[in-house]
Amino acid sequence: MSKAPDMAVTIAGIRMKNPVLLASGTCGYGPEYADLIDLNALGGITVKGILAVPWEGNTPIRLTETPAGLLNAIGLQNPGMEKFISEYMPFLRRHQTAVIVNIWGRTMEEYGEVAARFDDVEGVHALELNISCPNLKAGGMEFGTDPKTAAQVISLVRKRTRLPLIPKLSPTVHAIAQFARVAEESGADAISLINSVPAMVIDVERRRPVLSNGVGGLTGAAIRPIAVRLVWQAARAVKIPIIGMGGISCGRDALEFLIAGASAVAVGTATFLDPGTALRVVSEIETYLQKHNLASVRDVIGTLEVS
Amino acid sequence: MSKAPDMAVTIAGIRMKNPVLLASGTCGYGPEYADLIDLNALGGITVKGILAVPWEGNTPIRLTETPAGLLNAIGLQNPGMEKFISEYMPFLRRHQTAVIVNIWGRTMEEYGEVAARFDDVEGVHALELNISCPNLKAGGMEFGTDPKTAAQVISLVRKRTRLPLIPKLSPTVHAIAQFARVAEESGADAISLINSVPAMVIDVERRRPVLSNGVGGLTGAAIRPIAVRLVWQAARAVKIPIIGMGGISCGRDALEFLIAGASAVAVGTATFLDPGTALRVVSEIETYLQKHNLASVRDVIGTLEVS
Amino acid sequence: MRLIEEATVLEHVAFGGGYRRIVFRAPNISRAAAPGQFVHVRIPQLSREALRRPFSIYRADGDELHVMYKPVGRGTHVMEHAHRGDVYSLIGPLGHGFSAEDRDTLPVCVAGGYGVAPLSFLAKRMRRKGVVFIGARAAPDILCTDDFASVGWDVHVATEDGSLGERGLITDALDRWIATRPAGPTPEIFACGPEGLMRALTLRAEKHGWQAWLSLDRPMGCGIGACLSCVQRLRGPDGKEYWARCCTEGPVFAARELVWEHA
Amino acid sequence: MRLIEEATVLEHVAFGGGYRRIVFRAPNISRAAAPGQFVHVRIPQLSREALRRPFSIYRADGDELHVMYKPVGRGTHVMEHAHRGDVYSLIGPLGHGFSAEDRDTLPVCVAGGYGVAPLSFLAKRMRRKGVVFIGARAAPDILCTDDFASVGWDVHVATEDGSLGERGLITDALDRWIATRPAGPTPEIFACGPEGLMRALTLRAEKHGWQAWLSLDRPMGCGIGACLSCVQRLRGPDGKEYWARCCTEGPVFAARELVWEHA
Ligand SMILES: Cc1cc2nc3c(=O)[nH]c(=O)nc-3n(C[C@H](O)[C@H](O)[C@H](O)COP(=O)(O)OP(=O)(O)OC[C@H]3O[C@@H](n4cnc5c(N)ncnc54)[C@H](O)[C@@H]3O)c2cc1C
Ligand SMILES: Cc1cc2nc3c(=O)[nH]c(=O)nc-3n(C[C@H](O)[C@H](O)[C@H](O)COP(=O)(O)OP(=O)(O)OC[C@H]3O[C@@H](n4cnc5c(N)ncnc54)[C@H](O)[C@@H]3O)c2cc1C
Ligand SMILES: Cc1cc2nc3c(=O)[nH]c(=O)nc-3n(C[C@H](O)[C@H](O)[C@H](O)COP(=O)(O)O)c2cc1C
Ligand SMILES: Cc1cc2nc3c(=O)[nH]c(=O)nc-3n(C[C@H](O)[C@H](O)[C@H](O)COP(=O)(O)O)c2cc1C
Ligand code: FES
Ligand code: FES
Question: Would you say the pTM of this structure is higher than 0.90?
Fold first, then answer.
């Protein structure tokens, strides 16, 4: 057995001990899973989307299961930035893991306002800019599906914060490469891909959508092949690093993203099934690197050969 | 038990005995499944995509399994329109089922050429216009992801044939409603939704895509919630009928599409798992209608209530 | 403290009324469990991609953790094939359960469906004796009466077809009892069952000014408070409404805080 | 005529070399089956959404259809749990197999991995006696020698570690036999095994001008010719290349028609 491979990666200036994060919205604000997993062993944690003010989210039913997937329409419920900062940041600061705060706004200005507020909050390593949530009747998604609007919101936020900025792009655009370039040109330090895919399940007995919101976001293994494709297309279009996600549940899944060009990955839905997923992903990547005699995880990133 | 519900639907002027078709590319040209299922009991059959000339398609590996899905990159292999007409149309004409011919072209002109050729072929009930295949390096997909090009190709084909015209739209556009309207305005008689979703699976041991083509199209149950959402969004945008498909494997699945606004449905991947799927779907829809005291399948179409 | 435990199936038997009981060896969760709490169960024979399913804890005796369930859908139908020796991953004990503490009220349990499971556990952990109402469609669906009788509770049964106990709905039986009950300590309701029953009990508790503790059922993702999928509308002491998580702040809520109608 | 049949598992046993054998009751498919054909199997314990898996027919005796398989992935690992009485949906008999007809050649079978299954079936259906080469890594992986011996075939075995028969690759053993074989009828090769072996046999058949029939393995969707996923490049008699379907025109192809390299 060769010596332990180097798992560290640096993304958008954040040095992470390994390339495996928890995805926004699937790990709460940190304490929720702390009984069950060692947060310090993670590359990082991305907290649930934060708005300037508290936000109620949608009426239940908010979640339903689909074939190999999960459909949710939480509607971005969150306590607002002030309560998040006072209630959860002290906990997060005590941990040795990268803290990425996922933020959103109902208007361009609000995106800027939230970003500016975090600029001087200690312990925040980067901002993930959610411009692709399918679960809001207005806003959210719209910012991420028109290149011009995406450019505007990213540029605006860029001016309001010195923190590394990671826009999270929508998977429902045709030309992801174009959006990735727009993000890069507008000052993004990295890109997150993918958010959940807009989808719907109908209760045929009641002839109503199962989710009260009607449309929700599809996540989990079902969408993994779509996510891998998008990450590959985006990675070829830009120089900034990509954080890949969508249906990752084991080292092999994560390696698909890394090989496709992601510099880090995030685990979402699979954490619900097995809270230890992200840590298992870390060790399964290590095993793979050893088996393939690779000294560093960086040696697999973007190595896909296509004929 | 009330009397048998009326299952007939008329789409784009084609009267079908029931609203269940076999999807293009999953039932060959007709004879392949004839030993195993009674083609006369189907609403119709959509044959594999036909080009003006014979087409080789992609190098294998052409198919791989994904969680609750199937990824394929056949690359539209087909014998060309002349061989199809002489070899398969006589067989198809002998059957009492709607025959929809799926066609494509490498150029706008070629789309027109194929369409014109079928105008005087006896036994063809409609043309499905594939402008959304993800498995061609050039052409195919590109026609379906830009509204202007989509309008051009549909209008052109419209001029070359009197047959009912059913463009099959791409699922990877953000604003499906816009594309549906473009199709309607360009002379389409109905719309097919959805084609497979561009996706990729990577063999991490070889660091190559599993499919030789790199990207393939994802189908099967995994994409059903995405398809239902798109059909619902398109149905609200246009007056022409929609043929819904994507992961249908039972009556309940089909009813989701009908309730969302599809006037007929097609079964694809599920036929591989159980050749009798489409016929089972027919009888399960009948059972549902009886249980709900509905006299006709037309009474469920587009009945989704959204709050 | 939430735990994740690989639990071995010790026993799996039919129980009556279409219900089945699984006994797990889950020493850590079992010892930490309180009535009204639940376990979030990964069903190994279900596809690798399937969510966990929540089940109330029916009994926690030493190393043994009992769950009672009815096959209703994909997951529970697969659970029917659980064999002795199978290993299930459980997360638990989860949620905020019923209080078994001594108080000067008369505990009145009202159970519909699997609701008898957490309530039986509660009766066993309470030092007080109370009254229990168990309702179902017909005699075979009435479960666990002995659990309550054996700890000295007064058991009332109602079936819709009259095949056991009083004929009619459980709420009818409860209403008759309320109307005729002898003087004594103020009733305090503990209930678990279908949403219709929970709403009906909210009204009665309000009308009589009694405390009522209701266990609610919501589709759950994480089970531990992270996904915000399982919410129920509550009205806090300050009158402000908010969403509370059934998996964390619940599944047991005070009836007077519940807001049932929300646009 | 392709059939779809609900087949009951009659027997399921370990077989050696990591292989297992399932015996199905599938009277219709069994009676129609010919050597080299396969069945497309829906594995009931796999998720509802999973594709069928193709398996060669190992034996077809009256109502009984035998399949031999090795757990290698998701589907076959689940098949390991098949129990007597389980019902599997089979589509078959599928494909174009080996010809068992009398000819004036010497049949030479070459088997790697599960390839012994269709070839054993072939030997049993042939009236002629021939020579069979069975290769594997080590002694326990060498299967079915008795099947051939009992019908009077000359059995050659090669293992990479030399633990049974000749040491080395199966092609080495074949080459030695070719070099030293006594005069007699022209050999005709029938083979099934890994792609590397099939390529090696293509070269030998070409070199000696022998007929060779090779059974190929491709990921399959429909199994019946509709999806065009399972193709192999062939060169027709007119010299033109085209894609043929392994499930329909194959899985057995004439070696001289195979085109191995295609951009
Ligand atoms: C805190 C809690 C405790 C529970 N305790 C028990 C128990 O002790 N015994 C018992 O039999 N059941 C209990 N349930 C309900 C149990 O979780 C569901 O019956 C189970 O998840 C259904 O899984 P399934 O795969 O069989 O059904 P599915 O195929 O998932 O669904 C079947 C039907 O049930 C609905 N459904 C699925 N999950 C839930 C859910 N969590 N809540 C409400 N409806 C749902 C679906 O929408 C569908 O209509 C409890 C639920 C909760 C939230
Ligand atoms: C005509 C034919 C006859 C066959 N006969 C037999 C037989 O008699 N006994 C036997 O053990 N096996 C046989 N096979 C191979 C068998 O079908 C595969 O081993 C099986 O499908 C693997 O399923 P799985 O779910 O266990 O593996 P998966 O999890 O699907 O895959 C495991 C690995 O095998 C690869 N794989 C999957 N399916 C195939 C396939 N069809 N061909 C090649 N590689 C594949 C995957 O890419 C992966 O690398 C035959 C295949 C064909 C095409
Ligand atoms: C319940 C739930 C809530 C989510 N909330 C958010 C969110 O608040 N902000 C965000 O950017 N993404 C959110 N996501 C999307 C995830 O971060 C991730 O992009 C997506 O789930 C794909 O990864 P997965 O398939 O591993 O879950 C949420 C996903 C789920 C399942
Ligand atoms: C193997 C395969 C081949 C296909 N070939 C075509 C095609 O030639 N033309 C076309 O328009 N759609 C083609 N499709 C897409 C299907 O017609 C259908 O739109 C898609 O599979 C979604 O339905 P499903 O999930 O039920 O399979 C193909 C799908 C599969 C699986
Ligand atoms: S189930 Fe995730 S918060 Fe309750
Ligand atoms: S597997 Fe579908 S054509 Fe061969």
Answer: yes
| Contact of D60 with D45, CB cutoff 8 Å | no
- The C-alpha atoms of residue B166 and residue B163 are separated, in whole angstroms, by 10
Q: Is A34 on the interface with C (CB under 8 A)?
A: no
Backbone angles phi, psi at C126, to 5 degrees: -85, 145
Name the stretches of chain B with pLDDT < 70.
Answer: 1-2, 134-142
Backbone angles phi, psi at B220, to 5 degrees: 95, -175
Q: Which residues, 6+ apart, have CB-to-CB distance to A60 below 8 Å?
A: A212, C218, C219, C229, C230, C231, C232
Burial class (CB in 10 A: 0-12, 13-18, 19+), C183: exposed
Following DSSP, what letter does each residue of D65-105 receive, concatenated? EEEEE---SHHHHHHTT--TT-EEEEEEEESB-------SS
Percent of chain A with pLDDT over 90: 90
Q: Can you identify the CATH homologous superfamily of domain B9-299?
A: Aldolase class I (3.20.20.70)
Distances (CA, A) of D179 to C109, D131, D153, D182, D214: 89, 15, 19, 9, 22
Q: Which amino acid is at C130?
A: G
- Rounded to whole angstroms, the Cα distance separating C131 from C191 reads 12
Could you report the per-residue pLDDT of C94-130, keeping only the tens digit for each? 999 999 888 999 999 999 999 999 999 999 999 999 9
- Residue C262 is predicted with a pLDDT of 61
Domains of chain C as residue ranges with CATH: 3-94 (2.40.30.10), 106-257 (3.40.50.80)
pLDDT grade for A93, boundaries at 50, 70 and 90? very high
**In sequence order, which residues have a C-beta less than 8 Å from that of residue D246 and are 6 or more positions away?**
D95, D216, D217, D218, D220, D230, D231, D232
pLDDT in tens, B151-171: 999 999 999 999 999 999 989
Concatenated DSSP letters of C72-101: -SHHHHHHTT--TT-EEEEEEEESB-----
Query: ipTM of this model?
Result: 0.96
Q: Whole-angstrom Cα distance, residue D244 to residue B160?
A: 34
* Catalytic choice (B45, B73, B81, B133): B133
DSSP letter assigned to residue C52: P
Q: C54 forms bridges with which residues in the sheet?
A: C40
Among D243, D253, D261, D262, pick the best mutation site for testing chain B contact (most B Cβ within 10 A).
Answer: D243
- Which of B217, A63, B198, B248 has the alpha carbon at shortest distance from D49? B248
What's the N-to-C CA distance of chain B in angstroms?
Answer: 33
Mean pLDDT over all residues of chain C?
Answer: 94
CA distance C61 to C118: 14
What are the structure tokens assigned to A147, written together?
Answer: 């290149």
Pocket of ligand 4 (CB under 6 A): B 23-26, 48-49, 70, 72, 74, 76, 102, 130, 133, 168, 195-196, 219-220, 245-248, 267-270; D 221, 227
Residues contacting A148, CB < 8 A, separation 6+ = none
Q: In Å, how far are B110, B150, B247, C1, C215 from C246, measured between CA atoms?
A: 59, 48, 33, 17, 9
Helix (H, G, I), strand (E, B) or coil at A291: helix
Closest C-alpha to A62, from C3, C123, C221: C221
Torsion, Cα of D248, D251, D255, D256 (10° steps) = 10
**A110, A51 Cβ separation under 8 angstroms:** yes
B residues 58..97 contacting D (CB < 8 A): 59-65, 68-70, 72, 74, 77
Token digits of residue A151: 């450019």
Establish, for the pair of chains A and C, how many residue pairs have beta carbons separated by less than 8 Å.
96
Q: Which amino acid is at C123?
A: A
Answer yes or no: is pLDDT of C79 > 50: yes
C-alpha span between D66 and D58 (Å, rounded): 5
